[in-house]
Amino acid sequence: MTNEHVINYNTHDAPRVGRTVTSYISRAESKARSLLSSQQAKLGSNTSPVVMQRISRLKRELQLLSAEPPPGVSCWQTEGRVEELQAQIVGGANTPYEGGVFTLEINIPERYPFEPPKMRFLTPIYHPNIDNAGRICLDALKLPPKGAWRPALNISTLLTSIQLLMAEPNPDDPLMADISSEFKYNKPLYLEKAKKWTAEHAIQKNKGCVVTEEKTPENKNKKTAHKREALSAQENLEHTKKVCM
Asked: pTM of this prediction?
């Protein structure tokens, strides 16, 4: 295995994804920009303003995610379709997901950003708010009145919010009632099972996927800023709503 396919991160701090991504992610991001530009040119004036807005918005978001990804997060476009993305989240330090790399599927609806993206985990994860199909209980992923999506949110904010949900599960609004019960009443068992799932599904099967970044004060400040942005978004998302039960 060559160096460009090796995952490196610092386990003493929350893992972070840097400006230098692995070769296959770099190629995917380059193709994403090219596909979006060609799709935009091909559609031209015959396309509705809503679709054009989606294409333009996605182009800006992917460029930003490529240049300044949230720490521990990467996102790129799959080949051939502008509305299909994939992302990876590195499990946070001091969580049962530490050391794991979790892949997500993202589908962008035609009315984006007026409708939220559809996101689900492709990598199995043992979590009270994520079910066996990878569906995620997060109010930002649903439209009002049950959810709290709004066009001001974006893919980066959603991925950071999911990263925070991994670190801080919400057992009072679960998708998996049995895991929620373990989290509340038998946390050592929950931690043991979550670590086992991480080792089986998110470490062995994801070797050679993500990125390295040097630990610098600048990167630490970026991590704090992204986390503050996600927390601010979550504070505005009416946590009292039960969106998954």
From this structure: 0.72
Specify the CATH number for the domain of residue 92: 3.10.110.10
- What mean pLDDT comes out for the span 205-233? 52
Residue 244 lies in a domain: no
DSSP string for 136-202:
B--GGGS-TTTS---TT--HHHHHHHHHHHHHS--TTS-S-HHHHHHHHH-HHHHHHHHHHHIIIII
- In total, how many domains does the chain have? 1
- Note whether residue 93 is domain-resident: yes
Looking at the DSSP bridge assignments, the partners of residue 18 are none
Range of the domain at 144: 3-235
State percent of the chain over pLDDT 90: 57
Q: State the pLDDT at residue 51.
A: 82
181: phi then psi, degrees, rounded to nearest 5: -65, -40
Amino acid identity, position 19? R
Residue 89's DSSP bridge partners are: 73, 102
Active site (catalytic) residues: 137
Using 50, 70 and 90 to split pLDDT, how confident is the model at 131?
very high
Most confident stretch, 155-169, 192-206, 214-228: 155-169
Report how far residue 240's alpha carbon sits from residue 185's, in angstroms, rounded to the nearest whole number. 22
The helix/strand/coil state of 49 is helix
